C-alpha cells in the first residue's frame, strides 16, 4: 500500500506565512487563557502588560518567562486554566533534577499530543503494518502513554512492553515481529548486550527496522553504535513533560536536526545569562511557549536544554524549523578547573573506541592537588585482558579526552557489567563528590 510521506500533510508542509499566522492566532488565545491564573495575572501586572500587547509573533518577547521553580511553587494545580472537571490526566516529570512538577491535560490536549507523536512516528517511516514496542515505563513517565497513544493513532499493532525485564523484551521483539522500538539510548545499548548474551543476532533473528531514542542526551557516536549493533535506523526523539512529553521535536529521515512542531510551540533560543535571543546556529537555552494546549498552557517555558535553531529548509519538505541534537541541560554542565565541560563531549570520545562499551561514569572529586575528574568506562566483553594493550588503550583515551575537554582526566577501564546502567530510568553519568569551600 502506498502512503503519503506525511501523517498530516497540510500542517506539516504548511507554507511559513500561513504557519506564522496560525501561530499568532493561537498565541493570542493562549495568552488570554493564561490570564485565568493568578500566577500569570501577577506576572503581567509586574511587567505592566495586558493581552492586547500581543499583536505580532515578535511580541512573544514581551511575555514573562516561566520556570520549573514557578511550576513547583504552584504545585500541584495552580497553573491550570480550566475547571478541574475538564482535566482528564495528570503527569509529572521524572524528577531527575529535584521535586517533580505536575502537568494537567484535557481530553483535547491528549488528542493533540497523540497527533504530535503520530506525526513523529510516521515521519521516521512507521506505518500501520508495523509492530511497535515501547520499552518506556508506563505511568507518570510521559514516554509510556505518550508513545502508546501516538503509535495507536498511526494504526500500528502496539506492544506496551514497558520498562525492564530485558529478556522478556527480546522475546517479544522476536515472537511478535516487532519492527519499531522506542527506548532511551542507555536502554537500547542494554537490549543489545542482553541479545549478545542470549545469542540473538538482531539482523538474523528479528525484524527490527526503526528505533526511536530519546529522553536523555546522547552523542552522534552513540546513535551510530546503536544503529550498527541493533541493525536499525535510530532517530532522536526530544520530549519534556512540561510541554507534554514525547512529540515535541523529532528527527526526520534526513537525520539532520529535529523538527519542532511550530503549530504547537513558539520556539526561542536565549542566552541563559542575559536572557536575550541568540542568532540562529548559536547554542543557547530552548524556550517554548505552548500554543495548542488547554489544561495548562505555559508562556516562555525555560527548558534549560541547550540547542540551536538550524537555518535552511529540510529536504523532507516539512516547513517546521529544526533544532540541533540536544547538548544536555544547562545544569548538566561540569565546571572543572574553570573549564566548562558537557558529559556528551566525553561520551563522544569514548564511543569512538570499539574496545569500550557504552556505559561510563564521570566522577568529580577533590584531593590535595585540588579538584579532578575520573572517567570509569567498561571494556567490551570481547576485548582482551592483555595488560600492555590495556595500558596503551588507557593512554590513548586520556590523550583524546584531553584534546576534547582541555583537562586531563584519570581514565579507568573497568570490567563489563560493573557500572550496570539500570534497567529502568535515565542513566546517571556524573557523580560530584567535590568539596565545596
Ligand atoms: P526530568 O526533567 O525529571 O528528567 P522529563 O521526563 O520531562 O523529566 O525529561 C525531560 C528532559 O529530558 C528534557 O528537558 C531533556 O533534558 C531530556 N531529554 C529529553 N529528550 C532528549 C533528547 N532527545 N536528547 C537529550 N536530552 C533529552
Ligand atoms: Zn526534515
Task: Tell me which oligomeric state these chains represent.
Answer: single chain
| CATH architectural name of the largest domain | 3-Layer(aba) Sandwich
- What is the SS-derived class? alpha/beta
> Kindly, what is the distance between the CA atoms of the first and last residues, rounded to a whole number of angstroms?
66 Å
Note the main sheet: 9 strands, mixed
Question: Proportion of β residues?
Answer: 15-25%
The percent of residues in helical segments reads 25-40%
Per DSSP E runs of 2 or more residues, the count of β-strands stands at 20
Can you list the strand order of the major beta sheet? 4-3-5-6-7-8-9-14-13
Gyration radius (Cα, Å) is: 22 Å
Report what the structure shows.
- Strand 18, helix 12 (387-405) and strand 19 form a beta-alpha-beta unit.
- Helix 5 packs across helix 6 (142-154) and helix 7 crosses helix 8 (185-197).
- The termini are far apart.
- This protein folds into two domains: 1-331, Rossmann fold (3-Layer(aba) Sandwich), CATH 3.40.50; 333-432, GMP Synthetase, Chain A, domain 3 (2-Layer Sandwich), CATH 3.30.300.
- Strands 4-3-5-6-7-8-9-14-13 form a nine-stranded mixed beta sheet.
- The mean pLDDT is 94.
- It is α/β, with parallel strands linked by helices and 437 residues long.
- The protein is built from twelve helices and 20 strands.
- It binds adenosine-5'-diphosphate and zinc ion.
- Residues 252, 254, 259, 314, 316, 318 line the site of zinc ion.
Amino acid at each position: 500500500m502506498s502512503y503519503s510521506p506525511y501523517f498530516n500533510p497540510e500542517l506539516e508542509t504548511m507554507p511559513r506565512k500561513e504557519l506564522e499566522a496560525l501561530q499568532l492566532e493561537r498565541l493570542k488565545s493562549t495568552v488570554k487563557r493564561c490570564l485565568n491564573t493568578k500566577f500569570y495575572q501577577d506576572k503581567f501586572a509586574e511587567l505592566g502588560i495586558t493581552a492586547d500587547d500581543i499583536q505580532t509573533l515578535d511580541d512573544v518577547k514581551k511575555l514573562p518567562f516561566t520556570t520549573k521553580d514557578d511550576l513547583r511553587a504552584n504545585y500541584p494545580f495552580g497553573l491550570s486554566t480550566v475547571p478541574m472537571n475538564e482535566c482528564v490526566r495528570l503527569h509529572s516529570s521524572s524528577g531527575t533534577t529535584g521535586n517533580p512538577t505536575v502537568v494537567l491535560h484535557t481530553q483535547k490536549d491528549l488528542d493533540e499530543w497523540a497527533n504530535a507523536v503520530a506525526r513523529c512516528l510516521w515521519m521516521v517511516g512507521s506505518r500501520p503494518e508495523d509492530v511497535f514496542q515501547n520499552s518506556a515505563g508506563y505511568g507518570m513517565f510521559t514516554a509510556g502513554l505518550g508513545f502508546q497513544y501516538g503509535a495507536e493513532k498511526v494504526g500500528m499493532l502496539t506492544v506496551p512492553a514497558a520498562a525492564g525485564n530485558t529478556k522478556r523484551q527480546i522475546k517479544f521483539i522476536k515472537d511478535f515481529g516487532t519492527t519499531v522500538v522506542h527506548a532511551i539510548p542507555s536502554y537500547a545499548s542494554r537490549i543489545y548486550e542482553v541479545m549478545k548474551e542470549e545469542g540473538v543476532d538482531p539482523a538474523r533473528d528479528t525484524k527490527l527496522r526503526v528505533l526511536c531514542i530519546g529522553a536523555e542526551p546522547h552523542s552522534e557516536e552513540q546513535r551510530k553504535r546503536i544503529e550498527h549493533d541493533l541493525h536499525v535506523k535510530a532517530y532522536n526523539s526530544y520530549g519534556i513533560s512540561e510541554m507534554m512529553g514525547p512529540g515535541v521535536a523529532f528527527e526526520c529521515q534526513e537525520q539532520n536536526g529535529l523538527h519542532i512542531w511550530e503549530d504547537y510551540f513558539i520556539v526561542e533560543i536565549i542566552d541563559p545569562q542575559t536572557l536575550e535571543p541568540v542568532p540562529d546556529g548559536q547554542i543557547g537555552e530552548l524556550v517554548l511557549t505552548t500554543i495548542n494546549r488547554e489544561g495548562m498552557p505555559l508562556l516562555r517555558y525555560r527548558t534549560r536544554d541547550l540547542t540551536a535553531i538550524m537555518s535552511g529548509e529540510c529536504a523532507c519538505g516539512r516547513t517546521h524549523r529544526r533544532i540541533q541534537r540536544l547538548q544536555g541541560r544547562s545544569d548538566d554542565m561540569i565546571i572543572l578547573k574553570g573549564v566548562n565541560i558537557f558529559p556528551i563531549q566525553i561520551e563522544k570520545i569514548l564511543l569512538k573506541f570499539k574496545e569500550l562499551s557504552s556505559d561510563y561514569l564521570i566522577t568529580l572529586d577533590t584531593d590535595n592537588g585540588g579538584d579532578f575528574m575520573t572517567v570509569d568506562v567498561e571494556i567490551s566483553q570481547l576485548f582482551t585482558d592483555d595488560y600492555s594493550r590495556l595500558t596503551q588503550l588507557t593512554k590513548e583515551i586520556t590523550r583524546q579526552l584531553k584534546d576534547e575537554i582541555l583537562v586531563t582526566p584519570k581514565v579507568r577501564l573497568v570490567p563489563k557489567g560493573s557500572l550496570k546502567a539500570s534497567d529502568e530510568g535515565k542513566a546517571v553519568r556524573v557523580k560530584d563528590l567535590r568539596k565545596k569551600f
